[in-house]
């Protein structure tokens, strides 16, 4: 076979893509990472944890000890359900948000993103509907699209989802003959808005969904990152464990690079999730699980988490101060009580063109609001992240955003 013929045959693979392949598009968040590395550029885009608070020498020692003492075991194939002691540790973590749960309800995943994929795969047929916050997490939109699921947004306010608006949307969709499988929400310090759903709304939301036989998918990577450590709201799962499927993660409270998360679900559902997960990854990384269990189960973890939260609190305050100083009249923003993000409504701003391109022209990277809607609607809104950016850069980055909006 000639080189030309081989090249032609390789390109013939493209027309054979499934329809869903159209949904695998570059993430608008991931797309900005390389831009952010350009000299002089300030990134307010990536929602990364700050790893400087982590005692790297302690983690390195734990990893070395695990490998030295149990290398043949942790480098071998493992259980699809996860290692035995990690679910027990997760039970303790979920208890901090009020959940009483048995380890047999925990399915370990390769990060909570994998959990989101598994739940959608298990529950949703093409053409089914997921009701989601508007705006919502960009990564969730990619998952829903890949399974050819339609997303119906319910606009959020400063208190997150309005349960009555959710009920009205579900009822309207069903009246139109649509099948609603679950309501997707990030109730704590939401990505992308930074808002938190208060307890009254949480209780009403799970009731609304239970009355209609609709599940709630609670995505909770930020729940332990509240700035007021003495006050934690109950998780949705703790309020309705048979109606809510809970996604958790060690990415924000330990290390995103390890890719360890979990799903909490009724035992029969968890068993199906394990089978679905094994079909893709066989099992989560044994070494990553062992290291997560060793570190988060040690005396080092809580002081480290406290240092990280103090850092995020300070950076959030720096961003709020900079927004007050540099935003034009009419721009509104959320005031997070934890987590990594704030959301800006640009109000009367009528600038034309791509928000990201305009921001890059001013030396700052951000996430345009349209990326956080399933229909990619043109919005005069944007997400700013403060978690991984030093305070001086936050101040300068926000000043550049203000200059862009005035330009």
List strands and helices in order, with pairings.
Elements: H1 3-11, H2 32-36, E1 42-43, H3 56-74, H4 85-95, E2 106-109, H5 112-123, E3 129-134, H6 138-146, E4 150-155, H7 163-175, E5 180-185, H8 199-211, E6 215-219, H9 236-239, E7 244-249, E8 261-264, H10 267-281, H11 286-296, H12 301-326, E9 332-333, E10 341-345, H13 355-361, E11 364-365, E12 367-368, E13 381-385, H14 391-406
Parallel strand pairs: 1-11, 3-4, 3-5, 5-6, 6-7
Antiparallel strand pairs: 2-8, 7-8, 9-10, 10-13, 12-13
What's this model, at a glance?
The chain is built from 14 helices and 13 strands.
Tell me what you see in this structure.
The protein has 407 residues and is of the alpha/beta class. It has helices spanning 3-11, 32-36, 56-74, 85-95, 112-123, 138-146, 163-175, 199-211, 236-239, 267-281, 286-296, 301-326, 355-361, 391-406; strands at 42-43, 106-109, 129-134, 150-155, 180-185, 215-219, 244-249, 261-264, 332-333, 341-345, 364-365, 367-368, 381-385. Helix 6 (138-146) links the parallel strand 3 and strand 4 (150-155). Helix 5 runs parallel beside helix 6 and helix 12 (301-326) runs parallel beside helix 14. The radius of gyration is 22 Å and the shape is globular.
């Amino acid at each position: 076979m000639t080189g030309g013929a081989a090249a032609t045959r390789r390109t013939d693979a493209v027309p054979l893509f499934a329809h869903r392949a159209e949904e695998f598009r570059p993430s608008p968040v991931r797309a900005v990472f390389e831009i952010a590395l350009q000299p002089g550029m300030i990134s307010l885009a990536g929602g990364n944890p700050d790893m400087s608070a982590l005692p790297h020498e302690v983690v390195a020692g734990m990893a070395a000890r695990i490998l030295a003492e149990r290398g043949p075991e942790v480098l071998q194939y493992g259980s699809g359900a996860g290692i035995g002691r990690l679910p027990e540790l997760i039970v303790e973590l979920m208890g901090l948000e009020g959940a009483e749960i048995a380890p047999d309800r925990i399915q370990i995943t390769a990060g909570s993103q994998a959990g989101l994929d598994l739940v959608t795969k298990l529950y949703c047929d093409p053409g089914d509907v997921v009701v989601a916050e508007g705006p919502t997490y960009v990564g969730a939109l990619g998952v829903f699209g890949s399974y050819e699921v339609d997303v119906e947004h319910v606009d959020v306010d400063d208190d997150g989802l309005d349960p009555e608006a959710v009920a009205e949307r579900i009822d309207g969709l069903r009246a139109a003959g649509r099948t609603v499988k679950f309501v997707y929400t990030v109730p704590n310090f939401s990505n992308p808005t930074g808002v938190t759903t208060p307890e009254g709304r949480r209780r009403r939301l799970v009731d609304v969904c239970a009355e209609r036989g609709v599940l709630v998918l609670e995505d909770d990577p930020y729940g332990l990152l509240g700035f007021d450590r003495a006050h934690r709201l109950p998780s949705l799962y703790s309020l309705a464990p048979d109606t809510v499927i809970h996604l958790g993660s060690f990415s924000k409270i330990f290390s995103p690079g390890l890719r360890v998360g979990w799903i909490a679900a009724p035992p029969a559902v968890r068993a199906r999730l394990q089978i679905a997960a094994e079909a893709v990854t066989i099992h989560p990384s044994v070494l990553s699980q062992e290291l997560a269990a060793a570190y988060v189960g040690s005396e080092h973890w809580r002081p480290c988490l406290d240092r990280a939260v103090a850092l995020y609190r300070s950076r959030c305050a720096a961003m709020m101060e900079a927004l007050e100083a540099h935003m034009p009249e009419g721009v509104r923003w959320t005031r997070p009580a934890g987590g990594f993000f704030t959301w800006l409504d640009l109000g009367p701003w009528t600038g034309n063109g791509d928000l990201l391109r305009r921001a890059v022209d001013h030396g700052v990277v951000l996430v345009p609001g349209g990326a956080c809607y399933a229909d990619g609607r043109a919005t005069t809104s944007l997400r700013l992240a403060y978690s991984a950016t030093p305070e001086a850069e936050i101040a300068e980055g926000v000043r550049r955003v203000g200059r862009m909006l005035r330009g």
